[in-house]
Amino acid sequence: MSKVLDIELIELNDWNCCGSTPYSSIDELASFCLSARNLALAEKTGFDLVTPCSSCYITLNRTNSYLKEYPQVKAKVDEALAAGNLEYHGTVRVRHLLDVFVNDIGYDAIGSKVKRNLDGLKVAPYYGCQVVRPRFGFDHPEFPQSLDKLIASLGGEPVPF
Known about the structure:
Blueprint: H1 20-26, H2 28-45, E1 49-51, H3 54-69, H4 71-83, E2 94-96, H5 97-105, H6 107-112, E3 122-123, H7 146-153, E4 157-158
């Protein structure tokens, strides 16, 4: 879909799994270090870090936020990053792919690229609990609409889930 919308996605070289959200309950500092490594690698590119994965989105954003708000966490993470010859200055903007589609491309532009309209197909949008509910979300946390509007722009009929 990104090619059709003229979005160039570049895979982050040497990225690692963020550990997903459950890992932070096992070892919070290690979880921050794993995500910070990806943030540091992304910072070197100068681009936003865009992910389609809801767990990555919340984990990377949480790490980004903690590194800015808690100097004691940042100091420990910086030490771990230095062991891998990396550093992170907090300049990366973490985004979910849905955010890019609706806020950078727009519903009309996406709708104009449709080759096979959903023709009234009833679709129940599922936002999950991680894409719109973090405090850094791009949609209303209790009444999200971005996916509903995207479905409608493709010719579908969003129905309550």
